Amino acid sequence: MSVGGRTVEYVHRVSWLLHGNDLPPWPAILMHTCDVRACCNPAHLRVGTIADNWRDCIDKGRSAKPPGFSVGQRNSRARLADVEVADLRRRFKTGERQRVLAAEYGLTEKYVSRLCSGARR
């Protein structure tokens, strides 16, 4: 992150580094198991994905989403069936370009990128 032309790190990430850990490569993130965003105790941090973080949030009832909120193809606003998401990810891993996949599935490249990284669904 950059503020005023200077690189700034979140304190929990610095704490993680100072305790001898490497920052996880994208798309992995550091998650707070204590659910306190300001916490910098490395024992309260774990590596996960954005999707893991959302699942954790929903499981703990800390999401603004109503009870019974459907994820994946059970959601009425889902653009793809679960099998299509799995196929899209498989094809991306074998080297197909996101631009081609986006055009084929009628999605934006950004949405395909988020599906491939695990940030969505």
Features:
two-stranded antiparallel ribbon; 2 domains; 121 residues; two-stranded antiparallel sheet; alpha+beta
Description:
The longest helix is centred in the last third of the chain and has 12 residues, at 82-93. A hairpin with a 2-residue loop joins β1 (2-3) and β2. The chain has two domains: 1-69, no CATH class; 71-121, no CATH class. The chain has helices at 11-18, 50-59, 82-93, 98-105, 109-117; strands at residues 2-3, 6-7, 28-32, 45-49. It is globular and about 45 Å long. The protein has 121 residues and is an alpha+beta fold. The two termini are 26 Å apart. The strands form two sheets. A two-stranded antiparallel sheet has the order 1-2. Strands 3-4 form a two-stranded antiparallel sheet. It has five helices and four strands; from the N terminus they run ββαββαααα.
